[in-house]
Amino acid sequence: MLETVTRVYDKKASTGILKLRAENVKRVGDLVVLPVLVSGRSAFGAEVFGVDWNDPIPEGVVKQLIKLQDKYAVLIFRQTGLDNARHIAFSRQLGEKLEINPFFYGRENDRVGEPLLFDVGNIELDGSLVKSQSRRWHHSMGNALWHTDSTYHQQRSKYSLLLSHGDAVTGGCYTHFADTRQAYADLRQDMKDELEDLIIEHDLWHSRKLASPIIYSNPTEREKALKPPAYHRLVQVAPDGRKTLYLAAHAKRIVGRSFENSQKLIWQLIDHCTQPKYVFSMEWLSGGDMVWWDNRQSMHRSNPYTESMSARDVRRSTVIDDGPLAFGVEI
Ligand SMILES: [Fe+2]
User: Fold this and answer.
1) Complete domains list, the chain, with CATH
2) Which residues are placed with Cβ below 5 angstroms of ligand 1, an ion?
3) Is the pTM of this model over 0.90?
4) Distance from the CA of 30 to the center of ligand 1, in angstroms?
5) Which pLDDT score is estimated for 19?
6) Cα(189) to centroid of ligand 1, in Å?
7) How far is the CA of 302 from the centre of ligand 1 (A)?
8) What percent of the chain stands above pLDDT 70?
9) Which of 144, 203, 232, 281 is the most buried (most CB within 10 A)?
10) 8 A C-beta contact, residue 76 and residue 58
């Protein structure tokens, strides 16, 4: 256990300021919890040890984990040994419905081929790495922008669970997380008042175009039909009762404002939320590592694919929200 507390959560920090700190260790039943970012009364992200992934997770432990998730927004588990079936089974313990993969490029072309999982790795069907400049390569570039999964769905999703398979990746394999609750809390009151009732149009093709303007200036009719835009309040209440910002690179327009003014404010807020004081970077260390985050109270981004990255096999399940804000706003 002790060596884990020396893990660094800031990939740029040679100072190690974001080391997990032994004095912050908490015990919850049989679980050991190591918070990542602790600032005053606020804590964001935690590594959790002590879950027995070999068996179905007992309901009591699931309840403890959800309580931790409400508090920390991002939970990290190392070397779980989970396979697809148990990944899905655990996700189902967290919500009734999981998102179904639309298989943009055909189920027959999907390496995992499991409708309840999204292949977000960089491996093609034949085992080769994703070709540079392919449509899939360009699609993945949007994941490197700060975002929240599935804000472009009118019934949004609450949780994402990303599980790695196979060997550790070389070439820089991190997922970065930002604390939108603390970022909201630190806004000036006049800004909070301005934001309070704003409604945002979220569009997957907007973020694809931002990340890859040449390929995604004109999404295909099939792509557009599969993902029309959705509308959600900007300021929301997180599970722990604190207010938070529901934001993503998918955010295209503020209802009632011009596109230009909308984008200016949206990116001002994303820049605010992603200042280093609100962000940590989780390094993928070994196969079986899993991160489970709450899309209702955080943002995240991946590293973009690079030519020097080795094979990265990561698969995501997504749990659909069933709470009071799940369906957003009707326009
Ligand atoms: Fe994502």
Assistant:
1) 2-320 (3.60.130.10)
2) 149
3) yes
4) 30
5) 54
6) 30
7) 7
8) 92
9) 232
10) no
